[in-house]
Amino acid sequence: MSTSRSVEQWDEEFECLIDLTLGLMALNEGQRYVNRIQRMPMHTSIRTGHQYMLELINDHPDRLFNKIRMYRPCFEMLIQVLRQQTALQNSRFLTLEEQVMIFIYVISQKATNRMAMEDWQHSGSTISIVFTRICKAIASLSPIFIKPSNFDDVPDEIRFNPKYYPYFQDCIGAIDGTHIAAHAPSNVANNYRGRKSNVTTNMLAVCSFDMLFTYVVTGWEGAVHDSRVLTTQLEDPNSGFPHPPPGKYYLVDSGYSNKPGYLAPFRNVPYHLRDARRRGGRINGPTELFNYRHASLRNCIERCFGVLKARFPILRFMTNFSLVRQREIAMCCCVLHNFIKLHNRDDPLFQRFGVDGVMPPPDSDDEDNTASSSGTAANPHGYGGNDENLANSMRDHIMIQMYLHYNM
């Protein structure tokens, strides 16, 4: 009996040994297969990234525009500025032109890292390094391309338009905020959820009436109201905010206080241009006339945001970058917006949105100001006392003069 049990035990141990041996052989073969896959070259297209760039530059102009939202002369000028104003140069394997085109391609096509790898035939790490390098360099150009206009001159858009002159002759620009799609860590995501529960960052911008950004601050949490962002910038001596000189003012919507330097519309009165259009342009009283012309002139900031987000869809569909990088991306988009405006006056997007009264497409991320226009939105940072009375008196004076001339 003992011998029989020993044979049975030996058989079981032998079978276990065979199973273990077969398992090790299979594991070893699997590892060899994985190693072969890992060593297999991936980006083997006969068209390299450099060749793709040359193809886009030298082919039909619209191909390049459709890919990076700018034409060849503007792109070449950008390369020249980057060489002169930053430390960017050709790398060992990529020319500066290809690096810049990869970056603009990503923000213009809301492309992921994998999409860029396939189109430009580079590794994911190379794409990330190039993107970060170019992003920082373009953002560093903001003091050169985003700066206040001359406050002493009356803008041509006002001076030569009888709807606005002489009533708004002291106006120097428009202010508003817009929401940028964002990715935020889960522990702080609620701070970035706006009124519509989307995760966004809030960007405050000042623009001139020729659709150039003159001041931009990015990265505020989406839950923060526009008026708080503005108030914080005004109170910060290091913010670089271009304060209006005495007697001058910016146009703001009714989400902000009406105070010296910041002219808001009348509340509880129809404001938006679409309200006037629904009624065939009929005006009921001086306050409506003031509000409609105020909205028409202030519309330049909405059109700026319309061009910005149409050109750079990444602002609507942000991929998973760090919050610091997301702020830099938004600033880069504003720098490129101004650069294109300055160097290509015939840009199709500026022509599309550049007409007075053109309304940009609605943005679900931005707050709807209809409620504040009717007086239901409270502004926690309002100014009172003599400042408010002075601003209201100035607004009343403009309204009366405007309505008197309107009825003549």
Folded structure, characterized:
By secondary structure, the protein is α/β, with parallel strands linked by helices. 52% of the residues lie in helices and 8% in strands. It has 16 helices and 5 strands. The protein has helices at 2-39, 49-58, 61-68, 72-85, 96-109, 113-120, 124-139, 142-145, 156-159, 226-235, 273-278, 286-311, 323-343, 348-353, 370-373, 385-406, and strands spanning 171-181, 200-207, 213-221, 249-251, 262-263. A 5-stranded mixed β-sheet has the order 3-2-1-4-5, sandwiched between helices. Helix 5 (96-109) crosses helix 7 (124-139), helix 7 (124-139) packs across helix 13 (323-343) and helix 12 crosses helix 16. The protein is elongated, with a radius of gyration of 29 Å. It starts with a helix and ends with a helix. The model is unreliable at 367-384 (pLDDT under 50).
**Can you tell me the residue ranges where pLDDT is under 50 for at least 5 consecutive residues?**
367-384
Largest sheet at a glance? 5 strands, mixed
Termini separation comes to 125 Å
Helix percentage: 40-55%
Mean pLDDT figure? 86
Q: How many H/I helices?
A: 16
Q: Record the strand order, biggest sheet.
A: 3-2-1-4-5
Gyration radius, to the nearest Å?
A: 29 Å
Beta-strand segment tally: 5
Envelope shape: elongated
Structural class estimated from helices and strands: alpha/beta
Order of helices and strands: HHHHHHHHHEEEHEEHHHHHH
